[in-house]
Amino acid sequence: MYYLKCGYCAEHSALKSEYITFCDHCGKKFSSNYADWKLQHPNSTFAAYEIEVGVPEARYEAIMKKRNRQGFDLRKKAALITTVVVLIACSTVGAYYGPTLVKLFQEPVVPVAMLNTENWRTFRGNILQLQTPLSLSPVSVKDEPNIRLKAFKGGSTGEGLVIRMDEVVYLANNYIGLELASKEAANQLSRGEGISQFTYVEKNVVIMGQQAILQHGSYIYKQSSPIEFNSLIVVKGGTRVQLLVAHRGNDETGKKIAEKVMGSARLN
Ligand SMILES: [Zn+2]
Predict the structure, then answer these.
(1) Residues with Cβ within 5 Å of ion ligand 1?
(2) Over the stretch 88-122, which tens digit does the pLDDT of each residue have?
(3) CA of 79 to the centre of ligand 1 (A)
């Protein structure tokens, strides 16, 4: 894996695909993004770009290691004291409220800076487009019999925010009903790894004159993290599209971002 160093905040973002255009940390556009580089190097490849512009894995790890070491020396004393205090606090709280509350401290919240829509970008799927603070990259998904799947994702549960678009093409049907599509999308989500106590409500909405269903719900991830989600289901012919935004259960910034992303959805 190669990394791109941000010219604004000097943080590194993983070059997961050629679509990485914006910094994962501050959301600013990379001056050295692949699309712009490609214009100047029309005969070159993504692999050549990674070597010329990217920071190799080994160098990235060396930078992180050095940074951690420096930080540790400076903060060693304070951190040790804090750890002891937190450990005592957590074990006391944990004894009363169980592991849920303790785990709550570990799940990150969405940084407030992400609300600044100036740094947002358009993501265009085959049927639906939206505005998003995170770059969405293709996710590899296995097709099922008579079904073609395509998925794009930005962020992760570990980062406090997931934005995902799933396109499901039913090859044997040239029409599928919206209600059924909505139930299937919810079923699929509820069966995801580590998901329990899945619950949701749904309402009908209209996007550019077309019926759609908006689901709002919650679940517990890995027995300990409350997650909230919004899911928009749109159907066109035999294709079902699901736009999903998930964030930590009690995260106000996450809620606002989810609302904005859902509100930005348009049909192509
Ligand atoms: Zn940055």
Answers:
(1) 6, 8-9, 23, 25-26
(2) 666 665 555 555 544 444 557 888 888 888 889 99
(3) 27
- Domain 112-267: assigned CATH number: 3.40.1000.10
Tell how far the Cα of 122 is from the centroid of ligand 1, in angstroms. 19
φ, ψ at 31 (rounded to 5°):
-65, -25
Triad 221, 230, 244: Cα angle to 5°: 80
- How far apart are the C-alpha atoms of 259 and 36, rounded to whole Å? 31
Strand, coil or helix: what is 69?
helix
Structure tokens at 254: 């996450």
Q: Token pair for residue 76?
A: 């060693």
**Which residue(s) pair with 206 in the sheet?**
211
Residue (of 140, 143, 148, 166) closest to 16 by Cα position: 140
What digits encode the pLDDT tens for the residues 213-226? 999 999 998 888 89
Cβ neighbours for 70, distance < 8 A, ≥ 6 positions apart = none
Place of tokens 């993504």: 46
Domain boundaries, the chain: 1-97, 112-267
